[in-house]
Amino acid sequence: MTPQNMFANLGSILASLMFIRAMFQQYFPHQLQNFLEKYSQRVMAFFYPYIQIRFNEFTGERLTRSEAYSAIENYLSSTTSMQAKRLKAEIGKNNQSLVLSMDDHEEVGDEFKGVRLWWASGKHGVRAQTTLFNPVPDEKRHYRLTFHKKYRDLIIGPYLSHVLKEGKAIKVKNRQRKLYTNYGSYWSHVVFEHPATFQTLAMEPEKKQEIIDDLNAFSKAEEFYARIGRAWKRGYLLYGPPGTGKSTMIAAMANHLGYDIYDLELTAVRDNTELRRLLIETSSKSIIVIEDIDCSLDLTGQRRKKKKEKKESGEEEKEPKKKEEKEENENKSSQVTLSGLLNFIDGLWSACGGERLIVFTTNYVEKLDPALIRKGRMDKHIELSFCKFEAFKVLAKNYHKLECHHLFPKISELFEDADMTPADVAEHLMPKSISGDATLCLESLIQGLEKAIEEVKLKAEVEAKKIEESAKNEAKEEDK
């Protein structure tokens, strides 16, 4: 038989099969068609040893995008996109890189614990009417997973859990991080682009490494927190004089862990209910920050104490009109209480979500209520004090790329007696001209350190005089 005759016979057979199929669909009862299709699939399943699982892009009448589909998309883009011959490219959220993913109707392989399986991307059209108010696409995308039926338990259990976990982790890593602030009980945000890192943070290396190790241990401790029955969160109290880098430390923590920041302004929160609502709306992998908490609200009960003392001493407002205005202003202010804040930190509602850091900053730690900063609420207390020589070397490297200089020994000696914050040191190191002469900046720093030492000595002399005068006055009173 010649090739021409073979192709002619093949065409006739295919045409006959198509004709029979069309006649079958048109003249055979619908119930019979369903019956034959049902049992034909069972026969095929008996001989076909593979199982298929389909993950659709949308769920719930196409209103929400499936989290499983998104996680699988992220997982495949990072682990199997090198195998695909046809890829889709999109601009990443940082607008600086391309994100590659499988094109439609493409298939790639994967391996898990020695088991081979296959992922395929597909789409199929749907009959849906699009209107101005309901622009529904006319196609649905999906991923299809194929594997041998004898590995059913392994794939449906551990493998899919692995894919979803890795996909969500990749999403968090590649997402555009945000800085949130609250207006009343609602959050608004901007893109978080602070450049601070632990490498550029002016701090003693040992203390810096201790904080990094603590953060790393926390971020990997989900199973540990679940085992001991505690919410996956940790509190940090940053305290020290103004200008010692508390806000910079928070930015470095966020950049190190890849977390969002929620900058909570307590004075804008009306009451404990709004505070609880804000907590619920925060996401996992975030840092909740309350800066200068000693200045935010009167949370130590001092206001009540003062009122009680006034009542006991019989003091009252002399002018009723001023008294009414004062009470009206107090009613308009935030009604957040210490109890409400404590519940926010480690109450039942604090367990909603997970992987959160709660950070308080203050310049005067002694003003805070002990219940607010005890261990279990503020787990780690970090004192950020005046700049020393090791921290100075970090700033010198940041500002002038200096590893050593002939003025360093003198600066090291001055730092032993001077109290200067990292912010003041940075101001001296800031280039004063276009040339950015490092020597001029170091000489300016030396002058500043010498002046700071003189101020410390002068302050000590003044305090000594006060003590001496106080002792003299006490002696005179005893003589009387």
TrEMBL record:
Named cofactor requirement(s):
Mg(2+)
Q: Where is this region: Disordered?
A: 304-332
Q: Does the keyword Magnesium apply?
A: yes
**Which residues belong to any copy of the AAA+ ATPase domain?**
232-388
SUPFAM superfamilies given in the database record: P-loop containing nucleoside triphosphate hydrolases
- Annotated Gene Ontology MF terms? ATP binding; ATP hydrolysis activity
Q: Provide the alphabetized UniProt keywords.
A: ATP-binding, Coiled coil, Hydrolase, Magnesium, Nucleotide-binding, Signal
Annotated signal peptide: 1-25
Bias (Basic and acidic residues) occurs at 310-331
Q: Which Gene3D superfamilies match?
A: 6.10.280.40, P-loop containing nucleotide triphosphate hydrolases
**What are the BP-aspect GO terms?**
response to stress
Coiled-coil intervals = 446-479
- Which CDD domains does the record cross-reference, listed alphabetically? RecA-like_BCS1
The catalysed reaction is:
ATP + H2O = ADP + phosphate + H(+)
Q: Write down the PANTHER family for this protein, in alphabetical order.
A: BCS1 AAA-TYPE ATPASE (PTHR23070)
- Family recorded in the similarity comment: Belongs to the AAA ATPase family. BCS1 subfamily.
| Protein's name according to its UniProt entry | AAA+ ATPase domain-containing protein
The source organism is: Quercus lobata (Valley oak)
